[in-house]
TrEMBL record:
Gene3D superfamilies, alphabetized: Ribonuclease Z/Hydroxyacylglutathione hydrolase-like
Name the record gives this protein: L-ascorbate metabolism protein UlaG, beta-lactamase superfamily
InterPro entries: RibonucZ/Hydroxyglut_hydro
Superkingdom: Bacteria
Source species taxonomy: Bacteria, Pseudomonadati, Pseudomonadota, Betaproteobacteria, Burkholderiales
SUPFAM superfamilies: Metallo-hydrolase/oxidoreductase
Originating species: Pseudoduganella namucuonensis
Amino acid sequence: MAKAALTISRILHAGYVFECEGTRIAFDTIFENPFSRNCHAFPDVRFDLDEIRRQRFAAVFISHFHDDHCSLESLDLLDRATPLYIYCIFDELFDMVRQLGFTEVRQLKLNAPVDVGPFQVVPREAMDADVDSMFQVRAAGLNVLNVVDSWIDQGTLAQLAREGPWDMVLWPFQTMREIEVLSPARAAAAPQALPEEWLDQLKVLDPRYVVPSSCQFLQEPWSWYNRAFFPITYRQFALEVGAALPEARVVRLDPSVSVLLDATSLRPAPPLDWVVPVGEQDVDYEYEGNAAPPGTADIARRFAPLTAEQDARVMAYCRSGLPEKYGEVEASSEYFDQPRVWRLSVYDHTGGATHFRYLLQPDGTVRADDGAAPLGWTTEIPATKLYAALELGESLTSMYMRINDAVFDADTERDLEQADVVDDPLIRCLFSDTFGAYQAAQLRRLLGR
C-alpha cells in the first residue's frame, strides 16, 4: 500500500501548488515575469499562459494584499469559479476581485481552519497582522508551515511550537534592504548572515525540511539594486540553517520544481509543466554592500520619456497636488515638528532635473520656498516613476527614489540622525493613506480591454 504523500511545487516567489489525493490548492499565485513591474524571476522562467488557463484548483489562498502576492493580472488567468481565500482587512480588495468576475471570494480569519478535500489550511498570525498572514497546511498526516515573507513574534512562535511536529517549513530567507537603498549614503552595509532570531525560531519549530522561500527575483538587468538589495545567498542560508538544525535538510525549490513529501522521505516529483525554466537555474545572489549607486539622473535615462500629457500630470502634482496632500498625512518622527525646507528633484528621460523647493510647516501647510533658508530634506525621483506611482499604482520598492543624498548643515545633520527615511514627504503623500493602488490600476486595464 502506497504511503500517504503530499506533492509540493514551486511557482515563483511565495507561490506554491500543493496536491494530495487528486486535490490541488495553490498559494500566492503569481504567473508574471516580471511581476510588480520590475521584479524579474531569479532564476529566470517563463509562464505558459494558455496552459495556466486550463489549470483547475480546488482553492487558491492569498496571504496578503501586496502586489507580489495578489496580482489581478495573474488571477485573471484562473477559472472564475475557483474559490479564493484572501487574508486582508480591507473590503476594497474583495470588491475588486469580485469585479474581475470571481464568484467565491472569502475573507480568511486568523486561526480559523479552511477544509478543502484532504487539506486543512489554517491562517496564522504574522508580526504585522494588519497586513499579512502565514499558512499552516495539514494533509496526508503531514504538517507544513508556509511563513510566506512575514516575521514571527514570540507569541505566535509559542503557538506554532504547540502545533508541531513540523514536517516542512517554507521560510523567507532574505533580509531585503528596501529601505536602505532609498538612502544608501546614510545606510550601513548589511551583515551577510541570517538574523539570529530566525535561527532560534527554526530551532523551536525543528522541522524535518526547510525550504528557502520568497524573494526569487532581481530588478532590471542594469539595476544597482541587484548587488545591494539581497544580502543572503542560497549557499549562506544552507550553511547557517544546516549548522543550527543538523537533523534537518535544507531543500532549494526553484520555480517549477516539485517534491513528494511523506512521513519518512522527500523525493523528486514531475515539475509543473506550465512554469518553464529559462537558462541557468543554479544561480545565486551577489551582494556588494551599497554597491556604488549611480546618480538619479543616470537611472532616469534608463526609462522611456513621458508623453506631454503624462509629464503635465507629474508637474501639476508637484506644483499643487502634493502641497494640498501634505497636510493630510503625518510624520511618525519629530523631525518635521519644526519648519523644514524640502527640495524635490524630478528627473526626465534625458537626466535633466526640475527642482521644487517647499517650506514645510509643522501644521501641515506648505508654500514655495524662496531659496534663502538652508535645506532640511531632499528627494530625487525619475519622472517616469513618479507618474507610475500616481497612475499605475507602482510601489515604493521599484521607484528608485533617492532621499537625503546631500550634506546638510551641522544642526540638520544632527537632527537627521533621529529621522525615519520613510517620513519622506513624497513617500507619505503617495503611500500613507492609499490602499490597493496597484490592483486598482490593474482592474482598470483589465475591465477596459
